[in-house]
User: Fold these one by one.
Assistant:
Number 1:
Amino acid sequence: MMLTPYSYNIFRGTINVNRRNISSIVWKDLFLEYIVKNIKNNTNYKRILGPPAEEVVKEVDLAGKTCLITGASGSIGSEITRCLSLRDCKILMACRNVYKAKLVTKNICEKSHLTFYQVNLASLASVKTCAENILVNEKKVDIVILNAATFGLPWTLTEDRLETIFQVNFLSQYYLLMCLGKILTSDVRVVFTSSESHRHINWPLSPTLEDISLPKDRYTSIKSYNISKLCGLSLMHYLSYQWSDTRKSVFCAHPGSFIKTGLCKNWWAYEALYILMIPFSKSITQGASTIVYCATSPELKGTTAVYLNNCKRCDESEVAKDINMSFKIHDLVLEILRDRVDNFDILYKDFRSLKI
Ligand SMILES: NC(=O)c1ccc[n+]([C@@H]2O[C@H](COP(=O)([O-])OP(=O)(O)OC[C@H]3O[C@@H](n4cnc5c(N)ncnc54)[C@H](OP(=O)(O)O)[C@@H]3O)[C@@H](O)[C@H]2O)c1
């Protein structure tokens, strides 16, 4: 009876392994494996937790389409990339680590469908450079999937003097979208990878910078993560309003909860929790399915401002769908960017006037 190296690593950091407790670790490890195996084998796991992403896109032809995706080197991001490239979609992978992205996609995607762009979402300057490179090389973008995220970090400020999770998960990705305004097609679909956890946040009547980019004394990484996801939902409503007389559409998709991905890597306790949740949570490919559904499904044609979970419409929290609040959050976001980006008003004017 052996510990798998993986689970041994997890426990090694947290338990002082000695002869007495090693048998209980082995026991827990085997018990966990037993549960996972049995649930996966003996029940129709696929039906309970939803279809794999590949099945969701199997009828869709994406030849000639271009999709930009952030966080494409991550677990759900690379699965989305694989499924869309199977349908002949050209994928622009905006990744922090291009080397990792190439490794991750090496054997699963056709190389001819992939183009890599380096971006560090913790830096507005890096986002700008990435957008400039995309504008030089690409003529159009039909689908934008804003999927990158981080979680479980201690409080840090970015070089732009913003709390890191807020900037990476939300602000920089909206800024990237704005920078690419010129090449978004007239029926572009924008998908924010969201989370059910947005429900835990309620903003004051008039939120300030400190309510979305948390100062150290108000910070927990969960709170900041939830705020970033609520910002995405709020922005979905704002953009849908702004684009109401166009064919552009915006969706938010919840992939599923506690999917064991790189998201929990920053703290062992989260990693342990996500491992324990494996029997009850979606696989990575099931996690990608609602996002690819939003990005490609013909059933969603002509709709916008929809939050989806399990490939179905879902009611977001009251604050998320409050259109007045989405205007306030949007104003705040513009203020933050105006303070940090040169000639921001010229960029925003172009983005705002995207009507066709
Ligand atoms: N897993 C879940 O249970 C769950 C639940 C609800 C929602 N979600 C959402 O699903 C999406 C995908 O997450 P995942 O679970 O697949 O996690 P993941 O494996 O950690 O992927 C996250 C991706 O974001 C990228 N990223 C992080 N910081 C970045 C930065 N500063 N600049 C550029 N890229 C950065 C990562 O790049 P590196 O590879 O360089 O780190 C990675 O590609 C996220 O939006 C997450 O919030 C996940």
Note: The beta strands are 66-70, 90-95, 114-118, 141-146, 184-193, 249-254, 306-309, 312-313.
Number 2:
Amino acid sequence: MELIEVIRKRRSIRKYKPDPVPDEYIRKIMEAARLAPSGTNLQPWRFVVVKSAEKRRELAQHTLEFVATAPVVVACCIDITAYKYTPQRIKELTDAGAFTGIDMGAFGGDEYMKKRQAMDENALRAYASLNCAISIEHLILRATDLGLGTCWVMMFKQNGVKEVLKLGESIQVVALVPVGYADQDPAPRPRLPMEDLLIQEV
Ligand SMILES: Cc1cc2nc3c(=O)[nH]c(=O)nc-3n(C[C@H](O)[C@H](O)[C@H](O)COP(=O)(O)O)c2cc1C
């Protein structure tokens, strides 16, 4: 599909057929997530692919019921310690030539690192979540391209989901994404008109 067609076709799906999703498709959507861009290539996203019916039932205790009706639920998370690897990520980028011939000015090197280290925990979480959101949308658009339905779900209980999935202290769940074949065909949902979005053209 053309990218714009995928973007137009995507809907939040809240009703799924029980038909299984081929493992090959799961790999493809996870690969799309892996390729997402992130600040200083931090890649703070981590995922749990939940296929087990029992685990999905357990998850349903801590989120909206429809989530567990999809044959697969991807728990999209961040590792809140990922920022510690910033120097390593920057070195990889530098070695790959990402900054060759580019003057990063005040945004490069030590100055940037100092600013990053000065971020408090909330700011670090927000920054990692922002990056994670990009990878989630990659996953969702690739799923749409493969004919699968998905839905962003942020209505869940953090501690409950973490407990069900036995996630460590440094892992924070950002969203649950049910993945399966849609059992509904919703019309496009309303959007604000362009003139409400464009503050100005200068
Ligand atoms: C960050 C984010 C969080 C969302 N959380 C939920 C949610 O918890 N439950 C839900 O049913 N839909 C959730 N949605 C789906 C939105 O309601 C939906 O994207 C919006 O109404 C537009 O509909 P559409 O996705 O079909 O175009 C979420 C979407 C986003 C982007």
Note: The mean pLDDT is 95.
